[in-house]
Amino acid sequence: MVFRQTFILSSLALSAVLIIAGIIWPGSNWIWLIVGPLIILGVHDLIQNKHTLLKIYPIIGHFRYLFESVRRELQQYFVESDLDGAPVNREFRSLVYQRAKKDNDTRAFGTIFDVYRDGYEWVNHSMAPRACRPVDLRVTFGGPGCTRPYEASPLNISAMSYGALNRNAVMALNRGAKLGNFAHNTGEGGISEWHLEYGGDLIWQIGTGYFGCRTPEGVFDPGLFAEQAGRDVVKMIEIKLSQGAKPGHGGMLPAAKLTEEIARIRMVPMGEDVLSPPGHSAFSSPAGLLQFVAELRTLSGGKPVGFKLCPGNRREFLGVCKAMVETGLLPDFITVDGGEGGTGAAPVELTNSVGMPLRDGLHFVHNALRGIGVRDRVRIIASGKAFSAFHMLRMMVLGADTVNSARGMMLALGCIQSRSCNTDKCPTGITTQNPARYKQLDVTDKGVRVANYHHSSMESLAELLSILGKDRLEDLEPADIQRRVSQGSVLNYAQLYSCIDEGCLLHTDCAPDSWASDWHQATAYSWR
């Protein structure tokens, strides 16, 4: 039983006992001085809409906020951490909360980073800053084959399915996307009515299970796809090849989280774990992938179509590049996920030890497209642990045109990273299908918080560009970010992440030595 129900029953029972005790022993009424305020506090927690945690866990939920405030104070004075250590991650989590709530997000007493520690990164400001407005930072998606291109925000909501999230969480994200004029990736679970409730722009993700556009046998159905992709709110289509937390593993929605509604949307039977196979059945080669991209573009009426992957075997992605050259077919975008990416649940070996980290994968994909001379025609989306504008900037100087955030958007919804996403017992009502929990998540309030977080992040990104003396995202370059590699030695990203020459892979004698072997072995008509 959820704690809120226990509180209500306990409060009623205790009140009855105290009333009876007051009648029998009038001298016991002083107990109300202790119990009364607690009951009032609990009732207040139940009726307020700002904190889902308190609605689900009245009274005891306050201890979490108390401990968090004490931890933040202690952290400021006593903790020095690795750049990606837990205290710093908590600092960014606090930043998201504050921006989502429109609280003051400034910091006193300087950075918590050890600026002389190996790995510290920064940007060098310009003595001639330029004005840059957040509203001017839009990115066009859609190549020559698109008749319905899309003007995207530099920051959008990364893929999270209805099923992994519940209806209220999906509606809150979509409401935020509508308010802030940015896009909401559906995840591979299909388009639900909750994705459509507020009319926010959608990126429809098609995974290996083809949920929402599959036959009873689980294979791709062109007719169902065309019906869904024709919706005005669907702005782009993304074919999911793999995700960072578990590349090559497929996906699974536990039967415990499968409702009749989700089963209907995904077109799967009730009572069983919903499995997404590791690989696609609609194509079996790099050239087949590009033909599938072209087919979906046609079926959708000319909307931008791309694919998402966590890069792994370099030779296989270079096979896709060879297929682009040989067939002339190009995706409109490629979403690059990092091996450090998050998910509801995945085997430890996969989360810790499989897939390229985002910066390496992003740099590789960017260079591969440069090597075949198509980088200017294919957009790149980066997906992985973006909390702040500096995180976005770091991805963009390595080749990203836009950034997707899942973790940041979930924190804006109120996620406390309890790591219970796969148990159906999420304490903040975001990743559970239990109505006693998810109905406590206020869609109106949380939607505004998602929009607030996006708005603040875009303002901060524009401010960083201004500080660098730039007014366009296209002007960013790797040399803009500096990294301390050792005491007394600082290198910029242009020195750490060297780019290959434009079109060099098209000429065998021009391919860099570190690329030549993989490029030679890659083939457009087989993954291996």
Q: What's the shape?
A: globular
**What is the number of beta strands?**
15
Which second-level CATH architecture of the largest domain applies?
A: Alpha-Beta Barrel
Look at the structure and give the CATH class of the largest domain: Alpha Beta
What fraction strand? Answer: 5-15%
State the distance separating the first and last CA atoms.
Answer: 52 Å
| Average pLDDT score | 87
Helical/strand content category? alpha/beta
Q: Biggest sheet, strands in spatial order?
A: 4-13-12-11-10-7-6-5
Radius of gyration equals: 25 Å
Largest sheet, if any?
8 strands, parallel
* Fourth-level CATH superfamily of the largest domain: Aldolase class I
Low-confidence spans: pLDDT under 50, at least 5 residues?
Answer: 73-86
How many individual helices?
19
CATH topology of the largest domain: TIM Barrel
The total tally of domains equals: 2
Describe the structure.
The protein is an alpha/beta fold and 528 residues long. It folds into two domains: 1-76, no CATH class; 134-503, Aldolase class I (TIM Barrel, Alpha-Beta Barrel). It contains 19 helices and 15 strands. The protein has helices at 3-24, 32-47, 52-56, 61-78, 86-100, 167-180, 193-196, 222-229, 260-266, 286-299, 314-327, 348-353, 358-371, 389-397, 407-413, 435-438, 443-467, 493-496, 513-521, and strands spanning 121-123, 139-141, 150-152, 155-157, 183-185, 201-206, 234-240, 251-253, 274-276, 305-309, 333-337, 379-383, 402-405, 481-486, 489-492. The strands form four sheets. The chain has an eight-stranded parallel β-sheet with strand order 4-13-12-11-10-7-6-5. It has a three-stranded antiparallel β-sheet with strand order 1-14-15. Strands 2-3 form a two-stranded antiparallel ribbon. Strand 6 (201-206), helix 8 and strand 7 (234-240) form a beta-alpha-beta unit. It is globular and about 100 Å long. The N and C termini lie far apart (52 Å). The model is unreliable at 73-86 (pLDDT under 50).
